[in-house]
Specification:
Order of helices and strands: HHHEEHHHHHH
Shape: elongated
Strand order of the largest sheet: 1-2
Helix content: over 70%
Distance between the termini: 72 Å
Mean pLDDT: 81
Number of helices: 9
Low-confidence stretches: 262-271
Oligomer: single chain
Length: about 270
Amino acid sequence: MITLTTAEMNTWIAALLWPLTRILGLVASAPLFGNTSVPVRVKVALGVMLAAIVAPTIPAAPAADPISWAGLLILVQELLIGLAMGFAMRIVFAAIEMAGEVSSMTMGLGFATFFDPLSQGRSSAVSQFLALTATMAFLAVNAHLVLLEALVESFYTLPISATPISAGAPYEMARWGAKIFSAGLQLSLPIVAALLITNIALGILTRAAPQLNLFGIGFPITLGVGLLVISLMMPYLAGPIQNLFNQGIEASRLIPRTASERTPPTAAPRP
């Protein structure tokens, strides 16, 4: 007759529950996986399948009762690690969406907004277009598989432990969040520069011929120039977007490494 003790049952449950929590955290926050159009059952099934594959191969989990305070703290810590890894990749898409927002406002399409199911808010038409383009590129370069590979590697760089994570992980997330503004401005810079030249030309034209109706001809010209620049820059967006994906993957891998360090990060020197 096979007999199982409570300690053995708790060990088996914890060996699957804690990796599942980190995986579900990434699935909930990462782009494409965390999209609201994906049913919750599909997300949970994907997480359980990955946990069943990964759990037997990762280092042994600490011997702690999952229902105890120590087990709950480990559960929360694993959830935060998964959310942070997925959020690091989500920042890349936020930068691309910001580039679309800046471009649409410069073109005069700020009023053309749509409901974005990913952010649960409203975004402009250009932002939606660039986000869909980035999603197709995300699938084309298999970045979703590389992100899952980085998640599996995190169980070795930062094994499941009852020891609290280092304070360097939040610092790294805050530093990486600045990428939204820098990358978004860089991606939208061609459109902004072209429209700035267009507005200067319209201003000179209005001074030369005051009888022209600037409001009547300005909007169609700026809109046409903006769409023309977008069509011209689309073939050249593959390189910058893929570079952003690589940086997002590296940031996802860096978060567990930073969290495994037990010394706080040194402050950056002031210029």
